[in-house]
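Input chain follows. Return structure tokens only.
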Amino acid sequence: MYNNLGRTQMSKRNFVYSIIGRIVGMITSFAGRTVFVKVLSAEYLGLGGFFGNIFAVVSLCELGMGAAVAQSLYKPLADEDECRVSAIVEYYSRFCKMVALVTMLLSLLAVPFLSKIVKTQLDMRILISAYLLFVLHSVVSYLLLPKCTLVVCDQRMYVVTFVRSVFGIIALVLQSLMLVITGNYILYLICRILVLTVEDIVINRYADKNYPCLSLKMHVTKEYKKNLYSNVKALMWHKVGGVLSRSTDSLLLTYFVGLSGMGKYSNYALVIGTIGAFFDVAINAVSASVGNLGAGDRGKKSENVMRKMYFINFWLLTVGTSIIVCTLNPFICLWLGEEMLFTNLEMLVIVSSFYFSCVRDPVQIFVSTYGLFKESRHIPLLRAAANLVLSVFFVKKMGVAGVFLGTALSTVLVPLCMEVKVLYKYGFSMKSAEFYKEMFYYIAVSFVCVAMCFVATYAVKVTPMGVLIRAFSSFCASNAILLIFTSGKEYFSDAVDILWHGVMKKRKSLF
């Protein structure tokens, strides 16, 4: 049932599979988006993003239970306590059934208001049919979620990645054929939902086979429920704040610009997310191992691991951001045409929002896996409030750029600073002043590096070869600049050793 490999080995396996999965995902995403844009209008692209935000709000009925359950699974998995694992998954399954029912009822109540919320020229029958299909998929996903959560928490993210990569290819083929043959958006959605449902069923079957304890149908104790709901109360703040923060940008874009603007932004989000995924995959691959580590150690060793992770994340994120800034608009222009472009200012602000979101990843992973939900409960709501106020203020003055400037500033002012304090005080029981200095130094270096790369490659012509030249030049230049500014830092040699031994398949341990 349980992994007999160490945390570092499991992280490496997750990392390798994640890289392969990202490559497959990149190919399928861009190929699918290209067919979609050629067959359907930009409004259809915006429709998916808009519905996503509606369901993000509806998902508040989940109350953050998923994160609380995941955190509670790390210790029984580390202790190989089959009875507790079975009891937790059984309890979570019953909860997810209730959430699925509530989600369906709340989603259906919104149907009469769709025509008043969405500014579009699309046929309302298409709009409502698409919405109901999204409802169906959301309900089914909740029913299949508990066992998928178990597989990930047991450091087997590589299994989920492999399954999703295979079904991603299947989805690409079926959806593309459906669009080319029929040009029908509803049939396209039906294909997608069927494939995603079968994908989750396969992961559930894997869980049934590899975790025979699930058949025990154990029940959680009153003490577990008490501790769980204590975390859930705190996570409700996280859930509400997170949903509001994520939804603000899309809803403001839809309201001030319309679905076409939302569709245009979705192309940028796809490119940024694809490139960024290659640079954050190493961090995400170790999240379950961090939870496993935190179940037994929360002192200097854990703090040392976090700072190594932060340095590696900073380096990879800076290189990735440099490449994105130098190639994003030229690539969109060549891929989809000039009519799909934002201005350079809008692009730079969008990318800065991405950077500040990702630079927090190592700290967020430790806060989450350590279960510091109560201690950090106020952060998401403060961020959401700041995001809404700043984005509304700036969107009226700057348009699209203002929306994302508000997001970037709210991230810097609230979570970027406050999460570190929470982690050090309640997680490591240490002072955070030294890490703050280190963190802001890294951010300053990132901005210098990105700015220099952007200026150096700005004059390169917008051609396919020009995009490659920009990407290669920014990759080399950013690494060289980072080497100059950070080679003397404490965690530089450790990070190089970890990455080098990882490539050479030697057992250099991060943990």
